[in-house]
Amino acid sequence: MSFSSLKLDPRLLSGWTAAGYEKPTPIQAASIPAILAGKDIMAGAQTGTGKTAAFALPILHQLLALREATPLAFDEVQPLRALVLVPTRELAQQVYKSFVKYGDDTGLSCAIAYGGISINPQIDALAEGVDVLVATPGRLLDLMHKQAVSLLKLQFLVFDEADRMLDMGFIIDIKRILKHVPSSRQTMLFSATFNEEIFTLSKNILKDPELIEVDARNTTASKIEQMVYVVDEDKKRELTSFMIGSKNWQQVLIFVRTKQGADELAKEMCKDGIKTQSIHGDKSQGARERALEEFKQGKVRALVATDVAARGLDIQQLQYVINYELPYIAEDYIHRIGRTGRAGLAGLAISLMSLGEEYLLEEIEVVLDDRVPQSWYPGYEPDLTKPVSKNKKNTRSAQKGRQKARAYGEKTGNRSAGSGASGNKSRGRKR
Ligand code: AMP
């Protein structure tokens, strides 16, 4: 399928050409015609598949048509027509940049709103009137509260990374926002994984949606090679630095479970001679952006991240992801390794699994409905003489970890947090 066969407004071609894309990705080929036909959609697509253009292009197309059909009166301020809700500020920035890029030749305007920074510039930007707003739910509610934005004329509503929004406890915010959105809108929901909560949400917000699945649900992009190395816990850092150094990997994204763990690992890896930084929720927005920028520019070779911080990061041509620790929530594995193998590029996702962490891999494999190959790394074979309980599910540290994940889930409203893949296993299986 070519770009021209999508029958998008020619003014959208320049952004596409400038981006250097040759043809639409599968999610774009499937979503764009459905959105142009005015349908609500529910799309299973992770970051890296080109999903942003899949909704941005048809929305911009329809906004252009709308502007021509109903031009603004001389003194009329542009009412907000399209709202994209995203879970994190990083994703907000990426989606915003995409709208600006694709809409470069259209004269349509886009604003961005997320928390952690001053609200006043966002209020000022909205006061001028914009066509599109990309926002995190909490900050949007603040802006609505201050009457800086009205959703009354909204026609397009997108939930991007809906699963993560629910994981992060945004359901109440979302419900509040929905009360102010006209029911006659067109709604698009994108999610990397699907579980009961997503289906419940979709029933409430989507009308007769077209279900779009380019890859089987809850599966990883096909070009990602996955490997699990079984290694002793106290050898993980050494092996990580050794792999990166000996194989001369550049731009490696490493996942850990805790903020403290991220800082400690980054510090130790720097001592090993691998320039490494950490990125997590306790770091200021400025520090996170700087770390990400330096990583993108190749000034920093490895970036250690927690799941929430890494969510939505779009790093071009990221080839290597290392799961230093397997996630407690199996679906996070898919999000993590989805950072690589983006837009069809080959990627490698390595997981370091200590003896006793096997139950986490089992849960991941249930969600993937596939096995991940396991091996020992030469020179880092695990010490099998060490006593390890066969099933660590009930050891103190595992319980603590699960409790933490559960507490996080309670705080955020994610009922499945800390229960691994359970609760949505049947939904999660490849069909
Ligand atoms: P997304 O899934 O929207 O985060 O996009 C992932 C990456 O794919 C981004 O870097 C986009 O610029 C890129 N991309 C989007 N559409 C295409 C396309 N049709 N061809 C090649 N790359 C694309």
Give the topology, please:
Blueprint (H helix, E strand, L loop, with lengths): L12 H7 L6 H11 L4 E4 L6 H19 L12 E4 L3 H14 L7 E4 L6 H8 L4 E4 L1 H9 L10 E4 L2 H6 L3 H8 L7 E6 L4 H10 L4 E4 L10 E7 L5 H11 L5 E4 L3 H13 L4 E4 L5 H12 L5 E4 L1 H4 L9 E4 L6 H8 L9 E7 L4 H11 L5 E2 L20 H17 L12 H4 L3
Helix pairs in contact: 2-3, 3-4, 6-8, 14-15
Report what the structure shows.
The protein has 431 residues and is α/β, with parallel strands linked by helices. It has 17 helices and 14 strands. The strands form two sheets. The protein has a seven-stranded parallel β-sheet with strand order 3-4-2-5-6-1-7, with helices on both faces. β10, α12 and β11 form a beta-alpha-beta unit. α2 runs parallel beside α3 and α3 packs across α4. The longest helix is centred in the first third of the chain and has 19 residues. It is elongated, with a radius of gyration of 22 Å. It starts with 12 loop residues before the first helix and ends with a helix. The protein binds adenosine monophosphate. Adenosine monophosphate binds next to α3.
Strands of the biggest beta sheet: in what spatial order?
3-4-2-5-6-1-7
Each distinct ligand: adenosine monophosphate
Broad structural category: alpha/beta
Number of strands: 14
Mean pLDDT: 84
Number of helices: 17
Helicity, in percent? 25-40%
Biggest sheet layout: 7 strands, parallel
Distance between the termini: 26 Å
Low-confidence stretches: 216-220, 405-431
Global Rg: 22 Å
Overall 3D form: elongated
The fraction of residues in strands falls at 5-15%
